[in-house]
Specification:
0% strand; single chain
């Protein structure tokens, strides 16, 4: 019985990690597009990736805490896991906005408006990912929930 909880905890961690990975890859692509085409600053993709990645270094520590909590006991540590995931999301938003707000801008559009537009695009992508993820999670949890109460 303990093994199934551990497997679900590790599975939960990797699912959350995969979602964060997809969001970060999308964020890097959006930053690259907005930096080069909206702000009209010629920045290579690898420079955008390394500068944005430097702002996300605290996420490594947060994801390590989430991983250890998921290994110990995913059910008992769910509050720590969820707080860690929320903090990772907050760090992502802060880093994303800092990168767009602090830097050169060769266009007539102010950095603030560029950041607002980029955040709108990110929110649309997150809504799509969340919708798909919630449908997958509900499909996986429904049989377990019904079996739990049937026997």
């Amino acid at each position: 019985m303990v093994d199934s909880y551990t497997e679900s905890g590790i599975g939960l961690f990797f699912k959350l990690f995969f979602v964060q990975f997809i969001i970060n890859v999308a964020g890097i692509g959006i930053l690259f597009i907005f930096k080069n085409f909206v702000q009209k600053v010629s920045t290579p993709f690898n420079v955008v990736t390394s500068q944005y990645g430097g702002l996300l270094s605290i996420n490594i520590i947060l994801l390590l805490i989430v991983f250890i909590s998921a290994l110990i006991s995913p059910i008992a540590m769910i509050s720590i896991i969820m707080v860690g995931v929320v903090l990772v999301g907050i760090v992502n938003v802060i880093a994303f906005n800092m990168y767009l707000l602090n830097g050169k801008n060769n266009s007539k559009l102010d950095n603030f408006y560029v950041a607002v537009l980029a955040n709108a695009v990110v929110l649309i992508i997150i809504a799509i990912i969340t919708r798909i993820g919630m449908e997958m999670m509900i499909d996986q949890m429904l049989p377990y929930m019904f079996n739990q109460y049937m026997y």
